[in-house]
Amino acid sequence: MGHSPVQNHTFSCGSCGEEMSIEVIKKPEIASMGIHCVSNCEESAEEGLIVNLHPDFPIPEDQLHVDLAFPWLGHVQDLAKRQIELGATTPQFSSFEEYRRFALGIQTPLERWAIVKKAWSLSRNGKDKLSKAELEKYNFNSTGASPELREVLFHFCRTLLNRGLFPLFTHAAELLAVCHQRAPQEFSRFKRVHGAEWFPDHLDGYFDVFSEYFRDFGEFSQTLLICQYDLPLQENATASSTAFSRIKMFYGNAFELLTGHFVVLACLNNILRGRPFDEFQSMNLKKYLTTNKANRANPFADTQPFAAFSCRLDSTLRNASHHGAIKLDQARKQISYRSGGTGAEHKMLYTKYLVLCNDHILKLAALLMLELVLAL
Q1: Total count of domains within the chain
Q2: Domain of 65?
Q3: Is residue 54 a part of any domain in this protein?
Q4: 97 and 153 together in one domain
Q5: Virtual CA dihedral for 39, 40, 45, 47, nearest 10 degrees?
Q6: Last residue of a domain, one of 101, 136, 169
Q7: Quick one: 161 and 269 in the same domain?
Q8: Per-residue confidence of the chain (376 residues) as pLDDT tens digits?
Q9: Single residue among 101, 118, 137 that ends a domain in this structure
């Protein structure tokens, strides 16, 4: 039934091409739903163009307007196969009612984020007592002890990565132990600098980009599962919702934060190579911090667990985003963009753009987990 009880969908009118928006109100307790018209549309008894909508999966283009089509079933089968490959097990229930109670007790990503955001915001403003009270609402599945904000942040990011991308964090975290074993004093020096000088500012950046992402989660969720389980995006995949005007800056913002925080991986890589954390092969840390962010992954390009954080970077798309040189075509299926507003034109499926945005938020989740461990 999707991630949220209310799902926003933006798509074009079949006759005039004008943008329309609706809300789908899901009612899982009675296996039903309702529709609320938001903009440029109204309820009618007349037969119109069929538009298949799904909050969690893209729709094959040739089935977007087909009646009685259920393309999501194919996605669910692919997802189930991938989960089995990853060793996932399915809970056993004695009745449908038992399953219904279990399902209704699961907090969705948006429900979790609402708790995390409020607690995080209260903590940032020094209201720790109120923050702790809010964290009590988070379904932490712990021993009953009151969870700390850092524990909840770590768990929240873990649920975002899901089973499919959790190794992105674990493989990088293994290198933390290697750093400690090889150069304990230098590793401790780096931890002190990171915790005192970098981590507070980094947390502010994570808060802002996660807030931006979850503001339009219903748009991004259309390809989130595909990214979490590293499934291929079909060539004819079409997004049923295309609220591009709301998210066209997101890739660039996530790109800036991710590449800016590469300094953590770069310094850890220096320790792995037997150098002080602030000394690179051909420059010092001060010089490194003046380099183009698109090149900040270069020092750890040969260290695979760290290099995994830098794949799928598109500096041309980032530049276009920040120069207002990116747009969605009239058919609402493809974006075009130019680097700096004047470079060569590039084109990309809107669904691929959503994949890249999800890719960056998941990498940021893994990197935040790594920084939380460093800050212990």
Answers
A1: 2
A2: 6-101
A3: yes
A4: no
A5: -120
A6: 101
A7: yes
A8: 344 566 666 765 544 556 667 777 766 555 566 777 777 777 777 776 767 667 777 777 766 766 666 776 676 777 777 777 777 766 666 665 665 665 666 788 999 999 999 999 999 999 999 999 999 999 876 556 678 999 999 999 999 999 899 999 999 999 999 999 999 999 999 999 999 999 999 999 999 999 999 999 999 999 999 999 988 888 888 888 899 999 999 999 999 999 999 999 999 999 999 999 999 999 999 999 999 999 999 999 999 999 999 999 999 999 998 888 899 998 889 999 987 667 789 999 999 999 999 999 999 999 999 999 999 9
A9: 101
Tokens of 284: 């010092």
pTM: 0.86
